[in-house]
UniProtKB/TrEMBL annotation:
GO terms for molecular function: nucleic acid binding. GO terms for biological process: DNA integration. Residues 1-31 are annotated as: Disordered. It holds the Pfam family Retrotran_gag_2. Residues 1-17 have a biased composition (Polar residues). It comes from Cuscuta epithymum. This is Integrase catalytic domain-containing protein. Residues 396-560 form the Integrase catalytic domain. PANTHER family: OS08G0421700 PROTEIN, PBF68 PROTEIN. InterPro entries: GAG-pre-integrase_dom, Integrase_cat-core, PolX-like_BBD, RNaseH-like_sf, RNaseH_sf. The lineage of its organism: Eukaryota, Viridiplantae, Streptophyta, Embryophyta, Tracheophyta.
């Protein structure tokens, strides 16, 4: 019947009874436009049932052009597409009547539906950003303006596929190589080169231009303040892409030197100058590539390199803000954070020994030459070591094994993986070469002493003459009786006077200081103290003592030690499993 027939207006079904599909009245001016269009009537309009059209997937910031086309088609099938471009009808004072007011209300209702469909097509994060816009046109234009580059979504989509590509076992290598070649060719088809710098949405919240944030998702360092660069070269045509498919121009590349609150200098090379970025970003992946270690714990960030503490930061605005004291704009500054043969690296390799010992090793030509900053203080050493005033030294023995200092140190509260709670030291007075053994209990002290005695007497072809220790129970009976049986003089210190056994006590303190520093710098658990103690003793034997131009190792073994294989304790190491062992372990 005529009263139930619908007219089609621009893809929208408008009933003759002046009500839309939703039941709201329709503006008469629109009907007059529809009648004029219908009179032209050369080509009949084709309608598509709305229930036969699939909703577009939610837009998450990627490939806007494709989503926009799908959403436009979907709204067209619903008869709501025109509200993306129409302004709200305005009723003047002379035209106020019931019909005009109904038309305005009908338009508002339809615009509300259109706006709702668009918002429901957005990801939750974007929904929260754009839900406050009043009309469908404002919403549509805002999205179009934000993602206006027609190719930005496509490029970001292709780059994302390339970066996320992973080889998987079920598929053949040939097929996967062909797939990644196809993705690479898609990138090459783009008219302009895409700079591989993908960062998070940092331009949503403003920030101080002198603040720096560590972003593990960024692939390049980015700075918005031209004054922070120590070196700078202009750049044209390059762009940096955001996580939301937007992009900003790169106006230059240079170097930035940051002064951390710890006193260390962090040099950032190949930093992009992007004035539109509102946060200065440090690429976490680049730091990792240059040997830096980042530990994230309890909303804090600890940055270190080669076992040396560099600086720290804290969580802020979803990223980690570094504690930067000043920005050094001086072209003559040495980028100490990126130097491989620096005093900090060798300080870590040698178990955080004092810098005077390192300087002496340089003078003895045991390690490469480098500059030592006399004003520098290692924060790890300050935290891990406590010192007291030294007692005056006494005259040393002149021959090995004339006097052996020994002491047992207690770690009852923390056991190693092997169940050890103590360690015992044996130090030769003339050379200061020392042995350290781990103990599960103090009763093992006599066994370790016999083991030590047999080894050193056989290696040096000498005999131990005197052993000096405190009055601990492990020395009173077992070791004392054994010494008496083999003709070794056992000297015991006076009660409550550890300085009488100062060599052993000082050795224990040095070992524990180095152990603490190594555990702090590496971030390993306290139950690794045994391995740290053994490593500390091994390193101390290769470090010269005060007033001596030779190391204990040279005095004991008669040859120069090697330092070429030393690495910072606690650094990453990978073990090559021999083929026979690997086959047995894997079961093939």
């Amino acid at each position: 019947m005529a009263s139930q027939e619908n007219q089609n207006v621009g893809g929208q079904n408008v009933p003759n009874d002046n009500h839309s599909e939703s039941g709201a009245p329709v503006n008469n001016s629109l009907q007059r436009g529809a009648s004029a269009l219908g009179n032209q009537g050369a080509i009949p309009m084709v309608t598509v049932p709305s229930n036969s059209v699939e909703k577009p997937e939610k837009f998450n910031g990627l490939n806007f052009k494709r989503w926009q086309q799908k959403m436009l088609f979907y709204l067209t099938t619903l008869g709501l597409a025109r509200f993306l471009t129409e302004d709200a009808p305005v009723v003047t004072g002379s035209e106020v009547d019931v019909q005009s007011l109904n038309a305005v209300e009908a338009w508002k209702h339809s615009d509300f539906l259109c706006r709702n469909y668009v918002l429901n097509g957005l990801h939750d994060a974007l929904y929260d950003v754009y839900s406050k816009l009043a009309t469908a046109k404002e919403l549509w234009n805002a999205l179009d303006h934000k993602y206006k580059s027609e190719d930005a979504g496509a490029k970001k989509f292709v780059v994302g596929r390339f970066l996320d590509f992973k080889m998987v076992d079920p598929k053949t290598v040939v097929n996967q190589v062909e797939k990644i070649k196809m993705i690479f060719h898609e990138i090459q088809k783009e008219e302009e080169m895409i700079l591989s710098a993908v960062v998070t949405e940092v331009n949503l919240v403003g920030s101080n231009s002198n603040e720096w944030f560590v972003d593990t998702g960024a692939t390049r360092h980015i700075c918005s303040n031209r004054e922070l660069f120590t070196t700078f070269e202009p750049s044209n045509g390059e762009k940096v892409w955001m996580g939301n498919s937007a992009h900003s121009a790169v106006e230059g590349v240079g170097k930035v030197v940051l002064k951390m609150t710890s006193g260390k200098e962090l040099t950032l090379n190949q930093v992009l100058f992007v004035p539109e970025i509102r946060k200065n970003l440090i690429s976490g992946s680049l730091l990792n590539k240059h040997g830096f270690r980042m530990v994230f714990e309890s909303d804090k960030l600890v940055l270190s390199k080669s076992g040396m503490y560099v600086g720290k930061g804290y969580a802020c605005d979803g990223l980690f803000k570094l504690n930067v004291m000043t920005i050094i704009n001086n072209n003559n500054k040495i980028p100490s954070a990126y130097l491989l043969e620096s005093s900090n690296v060798w300080h870590g390799r040698l178990g955080h020994v004092n810098f005077n010992s390192i300087r002496r090793l340089i003078n003895m030509e045991h390690i490469p030459k480098f500059t030592i900053d006399v004003k520098h203080k290692c924060d790890v050493c300050v935290e891990a070591k406590l010192t007291k005033t030294s007692f005056k030294s006494v005259e040393r023995k002149t021959e090995p094994l004339e006097l052996i200092h020994s002491d047992v140190c207690d770690f009852k509260s923390i056991q190693t993986h092997g169940g050890n709670k103590y360690f015992i030291t044996f130090i030769d007075d003339s050379t200061r070469y020392s042995y350290v053994y781990l103990l599960k209990n103090k009763h093992e002290a006599i066994d370790k002493f016999i083991l030590y005695k047999n080894e050193v007497e056989n290696q040096l072809n000498r005999r131990i003459k005197t052993v000096r220790s405190d009055r601990g129970g492990e020395y009173e009976a077992p070791i004392g009786d054994f010494c008496a049986s083999v003709g070794i003089v056992h000297e015991r210190t006076a009660p409550y006077s550890p300085q009488s056994n100062g060599v052993a006590e000082r050795k224990n303190r040095t070992l524990k200081d180095m152990m603490n520093a190594m555990l702090v710098s590496s971030g390993l658990s306290q139950n690794m103290w045994g391995e740290a103690i053994l490593t500390s003793n091994y390193l101390l034997n290769k470090v010269p003592r005060k007033k001596y131009d030779k190391t204990p190792y040279e005095l004991w073994k008669g040859k120069r030690p090697s330092y070429q294989y030393l690495k910072v304790w606690g650094c990453l190491a990978k073990v090559l499993v021999p083929t026979p062992k690997k086959g047995k372990r894997m079961g093939f």
